[in-house]
Amino acid sequence: MESAELIRQQRILMGSPFTIQAYASHHAPLEFIHRSIRLAFGEIARIEDLLTDFRPSPLNEINAMAGIRPVQVSREIFDLLELCLQISRDSEGAFDITYASVGLLWRDAMKTGIPPNLKDLDRAKRFVDFRKIGMDPSIREVFLPHKEIKIGLGGIGKGYAVDQAFHLLKNLGVENFAVNGAGDIRVHSSPSAPRPWRIGIRNPFTERDVAMGSLQVRNGAIATSGDYERFFRHRGIKYHHVLDGRTGEITEGISSVTIMAASTVTADICATTAMALGSGEGLKFLERKRGVSGFLVTAGGSVLKTENLKTSEAVYS
């Protein structure tokens, strides 16, 4: 690794910056690394086309046929939906992929800076219930029984794209690399790598991108969900983009959640869920999840850690 050269490339995909870093060496020459990174970005673009709700896509076809007929989907989409439904059950609906009817109201609120009115919110909440989704695994059909029910994979999409790019690079033979999708990160290190990757964790109380500390990872994933990326203030209240699916509203009292897991999709979805639940319920939820560790930062600045977070992994400033 002494003679290795770090290659870093970035592209805007899924509406966010994706950065891939990889080390070139005599085992992995520059041309090979550049070609591999191009292919990884192509895989992320494929996932965007699969899951976007901003233009026609297989996901949007399910929404378009809501209340009309079931839609047969690929094994990839069916498995993703089943994973989301499992987390929805585990969180008792705090994470709910049918949040989209409410989510659209909050998407508009992010533009106007004014929260949705209670009448519209109450109406939209009637269509948020993951239990109503019809899933037929024998033929991979998905059915939304009412035209107002919509699904969205915003809480999982970027993490899934990072995982797919990760697997592509690993299968190509790239050994020492990191894939970062707007803070959803997965890294890989060869046994001979001299040191772990050191991942900075943003301080949620600053407007600038300043780290409050870091996590050291050789192989694994990290995801952070926070109230500092997409938010607005109205009459002294801060409204961020992570909603509690049970209420259709934000949970106050928590500023960020950082999760370590084997895969980015697991880290991503657990961070989003814990953020939606709030500090107390969120920590209990994380403690129940096997293979997951992390910490929550409350609005008051306290750091609440899961019991299995190793002190050797975390370095706080």
Give the arrangement of secondary structure elements.
Layout: E1 5-13, E2 16-24, H1 30-51, H2 58-64, E3 71-72, H3 75-90, H4 100-112, H5 118-125, E4 134-136, E5 141-143, H6 157-172, E6 177-181, E7 184-188, E8 197-202, E9 211-217, E10 220-226, E11 231-234, E12 237-240, E13 254-261, H7 264-277, H8 279-288, E14 293-298, E15 303-305, E16 314-316
Antiparallel strand pairs: 1-2, 2-6, 3-5, 4-5, 6-7, 7-10, 8-9, 9-16, 10-13, 11-12, 13-14, 14-15
Helix pairs in contact: 1-6, 6-7, 7-8
Give structural notes.
- With 317 residues, the chain is an alpha+beta fold.
- Among the domains are: 58-143, ApbE-like superfamily (T-fold), CATH 1.10.3980.10; 196-316, ApbE-like domains (T-fold, Roll), CATH 3.10.520.
- It is 33% helix and 26% strand.
- The strands form four sheets. It has an eight-stranded antiparallel sheet, with helices on one face. It has a three-stranded antiparallel sheet with strand order 3-5-4, with no helix packed on it. The chain has a three-stranded antiparallel sheet with strand order 8-9-16, with no helix packed on it.
- A hairpin with a 4-residue loop joins strand 14 and strand 15 (303-305).
- Helix 6 (157-172) runs antiparallel to helix 7 (264-277).
- The longest helix is centred in the N-terminal third of the chain and has 22 residues, at 30-51.
- The mean pLDDT is 89.
